[in-house]
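Example 3.2
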Amino acid sequence: MNTRAPITTHVLDISVGKAAHGVPVTLEQKSDGGDWVILKQAKTNVEGRVEDLMDKGSRAERGTYRLTFGIEAYYSTRATMTFYPEASVVFVIREPSEHHHVPLLLSPFGFSTYRGT
């Protein structure tokens, strides 16, 4: 049995070369009617991770998901201006048995993401 949650994330602040602690993260799933349904709201831990967006050992359903990261909220606690108030990453789960890791690389004036392991 898989002991990880099916969806995890990790945020790194590349402007300081450290994990981004305290970033608000919202996980949503798109319903059949097209509305977004909130599954979990959390903040990144001291390692910049949110590992409990879903229960460990559970399976994500096939479908479209969105992770929204509160960039402005994170940088406001560091007295740093940012161009982006938030970053939303929309992705599709086609294989529910797989682990889906969605990292975010962050700076006050840019961000990028990729399918992690």
